[in-house]
Amino acid sequence: MEISFIGAGNLAWHLAPALENAGHHINEVFSRQLQHSRQLVSNLFDAHTHSDLNFADSPSRLFILAVSDDALENVCSRLVLPEDAILVHTSGGQSLQLLEQWMAIYSDVPVHTGVFYALQTFTKGLSFMAFDEIPLCLEASDKETEELLVQMGQNISDIVYLITSEERQALHVAAVLACNFTNHLLTLARELTIRDDLEFDLLRPIIAETFRKGLAASNPADVQTGPARRGDLTTIENHLAFLADQPKLAELYQVMSDSIRHHYGK
Amino acid sequence: MEISFIGAGNLAWHLAPALENAGHHINEVFSRQLQHSRQLVSNLFDAHTHSDLNFADSPSRLFILAVSDDALENVCSRLVLPEDAILVHTSGGQSLQLLEQWMAIYSDVPVHTGVFYALQTFTKGLSFMAFDEIPLCLEASDKETEELLVQMGQNISDIVYLITSEERQALHVAAVLACNFTNHLLTLARELTIRDDLEFDLLRPIIAETFRKGLAASNPADVQTGPARRGDLTTIENHLAFLADQPKLAELYQVMSDSIRHHYGK
Predict the structure, then answer these.
(1) Tens digit of pLDDT for each residue in A41-81?
(2) What residue ranges do the domains of chain A occupy?
(3) Which chain A residues are within 8 Å of B241, Cβ to Cβ?
(4) Which CATH architecture has domain B169-264?
(5) In terms of CATH, what superfamily is A2-163?
(6) Using the 8-state DSSP alphabet, how is residue B243 labeled?
(7) Are B138 and B160 in contact (CB under 8 A)?
(8) Nearest one of B112, B141, B151, B156 to B11, comparing CA atoms
(9) Which candidate among A157, A262, B140, B214 keeps its CA 20 to 30 Å from the CA of A255?
(10) Which residue in chain B has the smallest CA separation from A257?
(11) Which residues of chain A neighbour B135 with C-beta distances below 8 Å?
């Protein structure tokens, strides 16, 4: 597949080399920040930086939008694609329908559309992530595009799913809970220890063991512990009193504890 | 040290063998459920089950309370200890002062008191946890007891801290946030996927990678991602709309997102 990347951030950094290693050909990389596209191109075989969003003369068939959700519509409105192009976005939170609508409005030629969502968190780094264990959630505007995306997905990953935009939304909300919110709880826990001149390192072993247990369980509910799980209202009251001078954190503690108590009928 | 355990639950299951391996001697194990004390005793050299809370004739010096917080006062009120005994609890959430007060009320003889809090989550299992990497948070009513507990702690762990009850409270609240609440978020994420007939396994790679990054960072805030971190209000609104039929979960989503936005000024 002849491919161009629009966006040279964390995802493109890992996905472009993975596609090349699977035998695909990256022609062009566009980024608002030329330095980013230059960096990415330097890791690819013979891709070039592309300085604008006019791809009318591009040799590529597949155009991969790897930009932030906020930038998607703006990019689509300025994008010029060749005949018979396939345009996919890589977002967990945006529907396929929206992309179809935008291209119906903004594009002079008909465009095949799709979603190529890699359910993983990416950070630019020295090494490239192996994609074979990363779930790919695919969706397409038509059967031919779907088959092309599935084939390309299977070239790089063992876990390829056809997922509707609604299902992808559920996965995205679930990932926000299980990933973004959990990481923020680590931040809040760290601040509590630091405030009392304690070392966050004291908590690392119990956090590591909790994560290990939670992921090893077929259902994390089986290994839930703590005062809310036990319905230990005395400890919950003590903790809320301890947090009295941080009302926002106390509210968060209350809401999470209520959710646990409700879940286990305590 | 000659030791008796009061309680034969998850902590005692791991701590008693660890103390034996370090050369200490477990004489007796009491549990309300005889089956539990029998199980634990079967893993120890020559300990016996003890059928009541009268330890007046016990050869032990140290008595380790390894019971749930809720049961602590009731157990203390019925406990009969020999002269010059040391009584420690193993709870993250209870103060040393409370134990001192209870024993002043309930015990006929003066008792040295202390706290021997292992900052880890324990589950009975086939193998025993190595204690050398588990932080021990110790506290004692007097200098001699403190020295004995520190020495015993250092026999089994490389990470021994003298921690006040207030500091232990901060650690305990932080551990509830970073461990109990995070595990519950995994449960909630699993339910969202199952509700849409999706497999929770799809989320395991991104959760594992998030945890890896969060624990590898010196500050988890450095690797925070997601719509709230970006201040992406459109996605947050979409997610809240998606959760409209689950008001409690929507409230939790809102409170967590607000906390993240507030933290990063978004």
Answers:
(1) 999 999 999 999 999 999 999 999 999 988 999 999 999 99
(2) 2-163, 169-264
(3) none
(4) Orthogonal Bundle (1.10)
(5) NAD(P)-binding Rossmann-like Domain (3.40.50.720)
(6) T
(7) yes
(8) B156
(9) B214
(10) B181
(11) 202, 205
